[in-house]
Amino acid sequence: MTEQRIITKRQLSLRNGSEKPEIWVAYRGRVYDVSGSRLWRKGKHYEHWAGQDLTHELADAPHTEAVFEKFEIVGIYEEN
């Protein structure tokens, strides 16, 4: 098992599609790199914004959490 780095709330917030070139979102304690997805261009996916924890927003999405399987996990999300 590869050890994952800890991603803070601040680090995640900077990967919002405008501050840095990476576009990241957190879901259930993991941080995913969605930079390569055409659906996350400029850090926005419908009414969802990158650079934040989307765990509580998935209930409103038309897809399941399986959508995250296609993205690379870049770290473990730590809200502090």
Features:
80 residues, mainly beta, Flavocytochrome B2, Chain A, domain 1, two-stranded antiparallel sheet, 1 helix, 6 strands, 8% helix
Instruction: Assign the CATH superfamily.
Output: Cytochrome b5-like heme/steroid binding domain
Helices and strands, in order, run as EHEEEEE
CATH fold-level topology? Flavocytochrome B2, Chain A, domain 1
**How many structural domains can be distinguished in the coordinates?**
1
> Low-confidence runs (pLDDT<50, min 5 residues)?
none
SS summary, helix count: 1
CATH C-level class: Alpha Beta
- Globally, the shape reads globular
Name the average pLDDT.
90
Number of strands: 6
Beta strand %: 25-35%
**Helicity level:** under 10%
Please state how the strands of the largest beta sheet are arranged side by side.
1-6-3-2
Largest sheet: 4 strands, mixed
General description of the model:
By secondary structure, the chain is mainly β. The protein has one domain: Flavocytochrome B2, Chain A, domain 1 (Roll). The chain is 8% helix and 28% strand. The protein is built from 1 helix and 6 strands; from the N terminus they run βαβββββ. It has one helix at residues 9-14; strands spanning 6-8, 24-27, 30-33, 44-45, 48-49, 72-78. The strands form 2 sheets. Strands 1-6-3-2 form a 4-stranded mixed sheet. The chain has a two-stranded antiparallel sheet with strand order 4-5. The protein is globular. The protein starts with 5 loop residues before the first strand and ends with a strand. The relative contact order is 0.31. The mean pLDDT is 90.
